[in-house]
Amino acid sequence: MVSGALDGSVHVLREDGAALTLQASSGITAAALLPDGRVLVADAERHLRAFAADGTALADLTLPMRIMSLERAAARMVALPSAGGEAGPPLLIDLDTFRIVARLEGHVGRVFSARWVPGNRVLTAGADGTARLWDGLTGRLLQTYKGGPRFLGDAALLSDLVVGGDADGLLRFWDVATSAKLWTIPVHKSAVIGVHWEGTDIVTRGFTGEISRWRLPRSEAVIAACAGHSPCAIVP
Known about the structure:
By secondary structure, the chain is mainly β. The protein has two domains: 1-103, Lipocalin (Beta Barrel); 109-236, YVTN repeat-like/Quinoprotein amine dehydrogenase (Methylamine Dehydrogenase, Chain H), CATH 2.130.10. Helix content is 3%, strand content 54%. It is built from one helix and 23 strands. The strands form six sheets. It has a five-stranded mixed sheet with strand order 16-17-18-19-23, with no helix packed on it. It has a four-stranded antiparallel sheet with strand order 4-5-6-7, with no helix packed on it. A hairpin with a 4-residue loop joins strand 10 (91-94) and strand 11. 35% of the residues are buried.
């Protein structure tokens, strides 16, 4: 486990009970542990620092904006910018060379979430009401999933479905390969700001704090219910 504080301190606790304290120059905005024991730390001065398992400094990368989260997969990491006037596109960073490989540019306005999905791909959701799928090695845009006129707070992928949480309280579903709109489900009275697959169920989080769990109809039931309707609205 790794945690960071406003005073720039970083505390690492490993499975064997070993503890390590590191120090950055300013408040910590994001931190992550890599499988090989390395520690990554982003701070308020827009630096991304890498430390070896023993605390030895390995790299110091200056970023174009502050970072609020770090999501890793294999030899790449996605850094999601903080909210505010300096916000920009997510950054794809190589974890071997500690350089920025690509900027995931395409969204209009803020990007609210960026996560790794199977196939070394990255799925993002943003203020422009779209979810976007990216190649996690090159940063190339693979597909765009268009929602409503308001923002998408989060998006997730399961098999051949992309699901996005909309500001209008709906879950929106798309076909992964074609980006075709499939159906919508009303899930919250407030904006949906969190979406998570739990097996084949979906756990959602609303802006006003509520958390809900949803069990989707079997695929053949959905197809029958939506026959001749695209997109289709399903009432739970």
